[in-house]
Amino acid sequence: MARSDDVPTSTVVHLPLWAWGGDPLGLMRAAGLQGRLLDRKSGRWQIKTDEAYRNGPPSLVTVHHLAGPRQARPQFGRLAGLAGPALEVSRTPDVQRALERRAKRAERTRDPVDLFSLFQLQATVASRSELPSTAEEIHAGLVDMRLEGDGSVRVFANAGVHVIQRAEELSLRARLASVLLRVEYDDQLRSDDARAVGHARQALRAGGLIFSSSEKLYDGIKFLDPYVVVLRGSLSPAVWSLMATRDLGPLMFSLGRPLAGTKGDAAEMLHLMSVPGATEPVRTPEVSATACSEAVEWWTAQLNEFFGVLTDPAVFSDRTGAYVPVKHTQALLTAEQLFRRVVSIQASHRDANARRVLLYSVLDTLSRLVGRDIDTHSTLSFAEKTLGHLRTVIPPAAAEILLPAAERAVKALKDVQNGFYMLRHFGADELEIADTAGVTRLTKEKAAAEYIKLLRNATHGHGTNRSGRVALTNALLAHHDGSIPDDLPLLGYLYLLDVLVRPDVVRRTLYASGRR
C-alpha cells in the first residue's frame, strides 16, 4: 500500500467465490482489474486497476473521428466494427411511423430543427449493418446544405462525425460497486449461504433485479449521454452538434459552426406559460474549421482521466485499506448528478428560476468532488483564477467551443457586485454590517459571494435561523437590488470544466471521503 498521506493504488474487497458464475477473477479481468486472492474462506481479494498495474493512463473512453476537417478521407466503414455486438433497436411499426412523420415534416417545413430531429432518430435506430451508410448519408446531407439565397455557400462545410466509445470495463467497474454494496447489506449472500446464492441465481435467470443498488441514479455511465451532452451544450443557447445514443457510445455529428438554439417567439404551447427567461441576447461565436473536432478530442481525453478516478476501487479505501462500496456508490451518484444538472442549466435558457436553483445545487454538489465550499466558488477572484487556468490547459481551437460560456459566467459573477445599489449611492467600496459584536466590513467581492450563498439558503425560504447571520442576511437584502445576471448559472459549467482538468484533486477528495 502507498503512504498514509497518499491515495493507495490497491484495495481489499470482499467478493464471494460464487460471483460471475463462480469465476470472480474473470469478473475482475473483464472489468480491467488485477486481483489476488488473500483468503478463500472470506472471499478477500486485493485488487488494483490495470492502469495502476502498468503505471499508465486508463483506456475507458476513446474517440474515433470518422469524418471532418481533420480526416483526409471519411472512414464510415469503421462504424460496424466499433459497434461490436450491438444492442439492436427493433424497427417496430411505431418507430417506422415516427421516422416517416419526421421525414415528411422536415420536407414540408425545411426547418433545420425538423431536419436535425430526423437525422438524430435515423442514427439512433439504424441497425448495426445500416449504421455506416446512415452516418455517411447524414454527414453528406449536412455538408451539402446551402445558404438560403446563395447556393454557392455550404453552411456546414466543416461538419464532422465522431464516435465517443465507452469500454466495457467502465460499465463493469461501476456495476461492481452496486454488486458489492448489495453483498455488504445482505448477510446471507456475504456468508456464501447456498440457499441465498441459489435464489439469486434463479432470479437472475428470470431477469430479476439482484445487484441494482441505486444503479438507476447513475445509469448514464452506460451510454455516456449526460457526460457528452454537457459538451454539446457548451455554447448554449447556441448548438454546434447533433448526437445519437448508441450502445457503443454517443455518435456525434459536429456542424462545424454554432447555430442559434432558441427562437424569439414561443416554439411550442408550453412556452406560452409565463416564466422569466434570459433578458439579454447572447452572441453566437465564430469558430475555426477544426474547433468542433478539437473540442470532442479534448473532452474525451478528460472524461477518460475522470472515469479512471471515479471507477478506481482503491480511491474508496478506508484507513485499513479496505474497499467501502457505499462511498464508491455515493461518488458515482454525485458525479452523474453534477453532469445532469449542468445539462439542465444549459437547456433551461427560457427559465431563469430553474437555472438558478440548479446552480445552487451544483455548487453544493461540487464540494463532494473537489472539497471546496460555496463561498470559494462564489468568489470572483477564484472564478477568474479558475478561468485563467483553463485557458492554459485547453488547446486554443478546442477553447473556441469550450470557454465562451465559462467566460460569460465569470463576467456575470462580477456583475453581481453591481447590484449593491446603496454602495453606489454612498460612493462606498465596502458593505458595513453592524450587530451586537460590532461592525463588519465586506468588500464587494465578499459581499457578492455572501449574497449568492444567501440565495442558495433561500431555496428553503428567505431568512435565517442562525443568530450569527441575521444581521448579515438582512443587510444583504437591503443593499442589493436583487438583479441576477442571466449567465450566473453557467458558473456550474465553469467549475465542471475545472473538475475535468483536475483529476488528482478529485482523486484526493474522494479518497479522503472514503477512508473515514
UniProtKB/TrEMBL annotation:
<protein>
    <submittedName>
        <fullName>Uncharacterized protein</fullName>
    </submittedName>
</protein>
